[in-house]
Amino acid sequence: MLRKQGIVHDIVKIAETIYGNISDKVVSFLDEKRMRSFFSVCLCIFLLFGRVAHAVDQQKMRSTELKNGMKVYVIQNNSLPIVMHMLIYKVGGVDDPPGLSGIAHYFEHMMFSGTKKFPKFSDVIDGLGGDLNAETSSSYTAYHELVHKKHLPLMMEMEADRMQSLRLVDKYLERERNVVREERKMRVESTKQALLAEEVFNVFYRNGYGRPVIGWDHEISNYNKEAANAFYRKYYNPNNAILLVVGDVDFGEVVRLANQHYGKIKNRHERVEKKFAANIEPPHRSEIIVKMSHHTISDPEVMMLYKAPSVSTESDNKVMLAAHIAVDIVAGDAFGVLYNELVKNRSLATSVFGEYSELVGSDGVVSVELLPKLGVSPEDINREAKEVIADLMERGVTEELVNSAKYRSMAHFTYGLDGVVSMARFYADTLAAGQSR
C-alpha cells in the first residue's frame, strides 16, 4: 500500500501494537483528504489562541548571547524569592554514536561525579535547602537547581566548573554504568508501557529517534572512559548550551553573572558537528506488521502511531497548535471521541490516552493508547477504533468539539506556566527545539 505524498500535516499512519498472548502490530493508513479537512477546521478556530500564546511568550522572556556562543534566557517571576537555574545542553539520545546507545543519558549520571573544587555537587545543593535534578531526552540534556535567589551566583559557579573540570574517575564510570543498567531493568523491562513504546518507536522511526534514550542493554556494556571523555569534550561547551533562569531575578544581573561565570569558558570546538543527529524520516511506503510478546505482560494493549508535523517539518506554529487540538478531539483522555465511543458507549475499553510530540528534530508523532476490556480482543478494539475515526472524518468536526478542546488546551497551557518549576520545564522543551519565539 503506497502512502500519498505532499501533505506533511496529515496523519497518514496508524501503528497498532497488541500485547499479551496475541501481541502484534499493524500499520494502516487514513484517507488524506479527510484528515486535511480535519486539521483545517481545527486550524481556523485555533488561530486566535496561537497569537495569544505568542504574546505571552514575548512578554515574559528576555534573552541574549554571550561572546562564546552560549545563549541566555531569563523569565522574571517575583511570586517567591526563589530561582530555577537550568543549564540545557543540545545533545540527547539522537546523538549517541553507533554502538553506544544511551551514552548521553549515561553522561548525565557522570556529571554528578564531582570536580576538584566541588567534589560532592549534590551535597552542596542539599546543604542550601535546595533541590536539583537532571533529565535526558532524545534532543537535549538538562540540569537544574531550585534554590533561594541569593544562591544564584553559586549555582552558576558550580555549573560552570563542571562544564570545564569534571572528574571522570574509573570507579565512578563503572558504578554509574551499573546504575544505568539497573535503571533500564526497573523503568523499561519491568513496565509494559515502556516496553511497548521502545518496540514501537524502534520500528516507527528509521533514524536516531528510534533508539531508546536509556540505551540498549547490550550496548551499555560498551561505555568506557575514552568514549565518555570524547562525548564530554565534544558536546559540553558554551556554544552548545542554553542557560535558562526563571524566578525572582533581574535580567541585567543574570546577564552580568552569566558573563562572569560562563562567559570566560572557551569552547573546545568552534561548532558542534552532530554526525549522528536525526534528520527527517524517509517515506514510509510499506505496510508493517510486527509480532511481539513478553513474559511480564498479561493484559493486551493497543497503540496507534500517526506521522505528524513537527518543528523540523513545519514552519507555521499554528499548524502544530491545530494538531494538538486534533489529538485532544480524537483521544483526549475522558473527553475524546474514542473515549466516548469505546469506553462509555460501546464498553469495549477501560482507558484511552493520546499524545502529540512535535518538538523533535525529525517528523512528529501522535500516539494513541487503548486498553481493551477483559474479553475484548486487540483485533476487535483495533477495528472499532478505526471505525470511530473513519466516522468522525465522514461526519466532520463540529464547532462544539473544537471549542471544547481549545479551552481545555488553553487551561492546560495556563496551568503549565504556574510556578517557576513548571515554567522552566515548559520553556526547556521549546528552547532546546529552537523555538525561542
UniProtKB/TrEMBL annotation:
Q: Print the keywords alphabetically.
A: Hydrolase, Metalloprotease, Protease, Zinc
Molecular function (GO) terms listed?
A: metal ion binding; metallopeptidase activity
Query: Is Protease there in the keyword field?
Result: yes
The Peptidase M16 N-terminal domain extends over 76-214
Q: Sorted alphabetically, which Pfam families does this protein's record hold? A: Peptidase_M16 (PF00675), Peptidase_M16_C (PF05193)
Task: Identify the residues that the record assigns to the Peptidase M16 C-terminal domain, covering every copy.
Answer: 224-406
Record keyword Cell inner membrane present: no
Q: Which domain of life is it from?
A: Bacteria
What InterPro entries does the entry give?
Answer: Metalloenz_LuxS/M16, Pept_M16_N, Peptidase_M16, Peptidase_M16_C
**Which GO terms of type biological process are on file?**
proteolysis
PANTHER family per the UniProt record, alphabetical: NARDILYSIN, PROTEIN YHJJ
Q: Which family does it belong to?
A: Belongs to the peptidase M16 family.
Name this polypeptide is given: Peptidase M16 inactive domain protein
Q: Which organism is it from?
A: Anaplasma phagocytophilum str. ApMUC09
